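Box 4.2: Ligand-aware structure prediction
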Amino acid sequence: MRKDAGQVFRLEDYRPSDYLIPQTRLTFRLARGATIVVAELTVERRPGTDAGAPLTLDGDGLKLKRLELDGVGNPTHEATPDKLVLTQLPESRSFRVLIETELDPDHNKALMGLYRSNGVYCTQCEPEGFRRITYFLDRPDILSVYQVRIEAPKPEAPLLLSNGNRVAGGDLENDWHFAEWHDPHPKPSYLFALVAGDLGCLRDSFTTMSGRKVELGIHVEHGKEKLAAYAMDALKRSMKWDEDVFGREYDLDVFNIVAVSDFNMGAMENKGLNIFNDKYVLADEATATDADFANIEAIIAHEYFHNWTGNRITCRDWFQLCLKEGLTVFRDHEFSADQRSRGVRRIAEVRTLRGLQFPEDQGPLAHPVRPRRYREINNFYTATVYEKGSEVVRMLRTILGAETFRASMDLYFERHDGQACTIEDFLKVFEDASGRDLSQFGLWYNQSGTPNLTVSPSYEAGILTLDIEQSVPPTPSESRKRAMHIPLAFALIGSSGEELDFSAAEGATVENGVIHVRKRSHKLRFHGVAERPVLSLNRGFSAPITVAMEQRPQDLIFLAGHDSDPFARWQAFNTLQTDALIAAYRLLLGGKEAKYQKDIAQLAGRIATDATLEPAYRALALTLPSETDIARDIGRDIDPDAIFSARSKLAAFIAAANREPFGKLYEELGSLEPFSPDAASAGRRALRNTVLGYLARIDGGADIAARHYNTATNMTDLIAGLGTLAHEHAASSQAGAALADFAARHASMPLALDKLYQIQSTAPGTQALETVRALMRHPAFHIDNPNRVRALLGAFSAGNQTGFHRADGAAYTFFADALLEIDSGNPQLSARLATAFRSWRSLEPVRQEKARQALVSIAAASSVSVDLRDIVERSLA
Ligand code: ARG
Ligand code: ZN
């Protein structure tokens, strides 16, 4: 494990390297215990670098076996496991360096570099894993052409894959064989990949827009080939979509995807050889939920889209991570919107952003979409870089319009193909294509924090006046903020539901339904407005901000029934629910009974049964704000038990008032149709399962949920029944029976057991801690496997507000110990889990102090990784 020297990397310190590596030849001899890697680098001195400059290569825990310079052994050098410095280099501009290192993939538990997962050799190099394979200029602005030779025992590894096209292969002595791969596209080291093992394959092909045939292969465990069919279909749809929507064609003869069972993240876009967490490849109706199908579709698309946004055009340095990630998330969101229901997808995206990114932006881990400093770059694969980064690209499109946006993207690909770029390069393209000045807009990349708009409307004699104030709350190391350019989509809605016109607007630029807020305050006047309108603001969530506006409940009810923008319509009901929940929370804290208005239950009933609305939309509208949503909106002095109680009581109130319509709807939606993973079918299941959640809260609820579980014919319904039983009727005999049944039926299916872990670890209440402790001893639980750990400990800490935030702090202590145990093998994983503490300062004082002590105990432990220490220290700062 790399020890923390407290080193901080800063954006302003970027400087180009003295040397380039135009060509890289790698030879791997894969043998258990001692894998040999020979790297032959063609090194070139950059013009302007003086001949005496040393060549300093990055390493991480490497064992150097042999070193040659232009064919001569043992040149002048200094080597440590983490660095190789060559001095007294030849006068010639270019020379060759040969480096032999020895690795132990079997003992690589950090899952960075070359490791073995379930017997399969695989790699993960982004962001700095390549330096765990060989010494290199391991930075994304060093683009090299790779030729890779893999040698391995044939019975153990009949499949040998790397990037690019396969150019040679054959048998060697002693039952070994080899393959050689050549990738003609110069690429940064983080996109290097190798896979060797014994896997089954689902094959297909895709013919590109210019008529080239691409061989597609998805490699999975033997016997699971059929489970890759949905992923293959998603891949072909992605390839077609990128041609249709962005004019981007694939550029190699083969495209391979490999599913591995030990993986730190979702997937990785290595050139021509994507490596995936198997959770995001394998699916059929019996093993995957509708949410899994949607994630597979999105992630397959995401990694494929990186081929242009990430690989052909890459990042100059890791501060620019959002250049590829924010843009590629935007592209995968647009893909899913086109494949499914745009309105429903948008609501889901916003829920994710608010659930993950807003708390990050509002807590101690806040950072700009393009950070300016880091200690550990792995800790910046965040919701801010990815999700807010995507929203920033979306705002660009809103501001410029779809046509200019597309023209700008064309220019981006044309101008920067083959380069390693910055956010400035990216913004310049949009400025050049549109003729606009985007310097104020650029703050979205450089200033952290969630902007707030306070809007006060008044109407008199045909004139609507909006007083708009913007503010960005202070965030770590940014106490003073500049005013941002916020594109606020809006509509003025008349009493019969139609959009009202206005003759003129003054006080801010208003165009195409968007108010351009650019100053700290605007007084905006709309003239010629026929009646007092109901305001629909931030339609489609045009900006990633919070909006504060006093709105009468009857206006919100009106919007929830009439707004033609699906997001704004959903938002109106969500605001009503949030207001009701917060009011009830305050009553409960004051020792009073929670009270709810009948309106909210009536509206729920109307929406549930409104056949003009898509079922998926209705399901989202009926899903109450989560406990963390509510906590975020309350903001401080949080008592998670009172939030839980307010939320359960509102759900029971809505259920009791709608017993009959909900019961009828549940039955109607239950008529069996053959399974299909498409969005419309999934939407019907989602609505039925949401309604089940309500029915389970009235008399006989346990029986309904048990029947749901027992008659389920797919994983989505099975999990809905199981989750409802385990969370709403935990003490019932039905819950116990269903949990035991599920465990027995899926005993040899780790991905299904993850779902069980997740349900059990998120069962509300203090007893969850004991459940989690017990499950950690479950024979199928392995602390080395990120999926298992996330399903159990990740879900517990981030998804169980009453269980994790027990008032006695016992769960914090337990969790801190678990983090340290995980940290000794996999720092990336422990650091990611530790972000569960990020909102600790918004808790009430007793819990706050206990959480603080847990964080301090981690910081004080004798051996803590750079990754975990970085998160803990920033959280405490
Ligand atoms: N580039 C990958 C993706 O978003 C994520 C890989 C990050 N890996 C890591 N170890 N931090 O598709
Ligand atoms: Zn990505």
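In the box above, the bound molecule is zinc ion. Residues 566-589 form the longest helix (24 residues).
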